[in-house]
Write a structure and sequence with these properties.
The complex is a heterodimer. Chain A is an all-alpha fold. Chain A contains five helices and no strands. In chain A, helix 2 runs antiparallel to helix 3 and helix 3 runs parallel beside helix 5.
Chain lengths: 175, 88
Amino acid sequence: MPDVIDRYRDYRTRRFLKYERTWAASLPGWRPQRRRRLLVGLLAATFTAMFAISVLCAVGIQWAPVLWLPACAVFFPLWIALQIVSGRQGDAPEAALDEFEIAQRDSARSVGLTVTQYLMLIPIFYLVFGSVLTGGTDENMAYAGGLMAVTMLLVGGCTPAMLLGWSRPDPMPED
Amino acid sequence: MSPVRRGESLPIHNRIGVLRAERGMSRAQLAALVDVNPQTVGALERGDHYPSLDLAFRICDVFGLPVEAVFARQAFTPLSAELYPRKP
């Protein structure tokens, strides 16, 4: 069994390094820290909008679910751009990173896990208490709860890359 | 700075920047020789990251110096002052 795991790790590392070579020079204008922070801010705004849409769904506004499509249309390009300019350090395999990068990645992942755990309590309590209070008859509640859960998972899943994209300094100029 | 699980956090100073400059070596060149990202060399020079023993030995090998000549608990004084101390 360890051989299978080792082979998968090697495959993941090779795939990551191939991806890195392909995208290493892409979006140069978005690589400075100031621009990366702009991407992180826009992603945070998108998540806020997604949560707001789920709340609109919860109160029964009929056209609210349609807003989810433009939110996704904004999210995916922002997320892909952030992944490219931050070198996908948030989900990089260990063999592709040095010790400082591993320490940064693990720290960001730890925060991401904590954020996910706490944020997931929002849809969980909403669905648990809401279903009890309404006797499980509110269809909007199930749909809105699903959207809230997806939003919170996206926030938690993106948090490591957002933290690294935000905090990683620009390369120091040579003397 | 690397996280410390417990106990007092003691600094580890280094002379990497000085030794690199002395040899006309860029961060990217040193990074390639010790197999890390150039940004990691920057983090070491800024004191944002304390190296593992393995990385410290690799860095010392590049400069051909013992560990105590590159890393220390106390801040380093300028090399010139050590070589040519002022006479009282």
